[in-house]
Amino acid sequence: MYFSDLPGQEPTKTQLTDLFKSNKVPHALLLTGLEGCGHLQLALSFSGLLLCENPNETDSCKNCSSCKMFEKFQHPDLHFSFPIHLSKTEHSEISDDQRASFIEILKDFKCLGKKTWYSKMGNENKQGVIGVKESQSILNKLNLKSFFGGRKLLIMWMPELMNVQAANKLLKLIEEPPQETYFIFISNDQSKILPTINSRLQNISVPKMIDTEVATFLKTNFQLDSALAEKIAINSNGNLNKAICAHLESGSSELNRSLFVNWMRLCYSRNIADTIDWVNEFSKIGREQIKDFISYALEMYRQCILGNFKLSTNGLNESEESFLEKFKPFVNHKNISEINSVMNEAYYHLERNANPKILMLDVSLQLYKLLRK
To answer: Which positions ≥6 away from 324 have C-beta within 8 Å?
Structure first.
């Protein structure tokens, strides 16, 4: 991944290359933004630039031995740290235990989201963690001399999932790293990073990508035709990871549509017995998939409001348009604010490990009333 591979984000690219040209690269850099904004690609591109043997003013040379190793994520001075499902029995205690899977998904998706990664590890309900053994592994790796005698880099994805014990172990290393050693942190939510870590990082905020940039990325990397790429991009709302998943996991979108249609019919009819059955089955799909479904539902409600006011609706497939044409009168100016509050609050509690069955049944009961307004 090089800067030239990512469409757009020119201000952030310029900010990073200016740091490189002026020889003022901070030893601990944080790229923060919403999931799918391109901050992971920017971190990888910047890492390639720092390791390149013959860099130019705006990018890596792409031809030297370091670039060739970097393209395959095999450079011995490039290290990764990321949240994993901790399990002694499955020999999953540090990032290196899951490195092969992590690299595989990076190559396939060219992007990374929490749901996709948890699914790859095999349990979407279990929270990933950067634990204390991971910190010890980082200390061991970065205190060694670099393989090629130059820079050493650690890319940490989602430092907000680092626990307190792990953070305390890394504080001194982050504040006073060995010479030519750099940390690049990539966060979806800076507010959740432990203050002791956050205060030691130089932050660069990365904005959302625009639809045309997402569409260009899909056409270039996944050979999609323009019409399909643009439709997926519009529906992704600037989330590159969501757009890629919509293409590679097309069944997920159809699952969300089917779940949403059945749920709304149950909520409008106030069929409590069938709603309980629906919630029991729904809660089995995994926490990250449920969060994805809530985001999908919020988008469908937004499309209802656009339709009610005769505004253009984009990114819907034929089956979604057919259902919303009949459903949109029940989501209107009298209840949309409360519906959004209920759904956003559900998302908030899911992120904090609320019981999905209890939570979604409560949301359903609230929608019983709201959809009749």
So the answer is: 300, 303, 304, 307, 313, 316
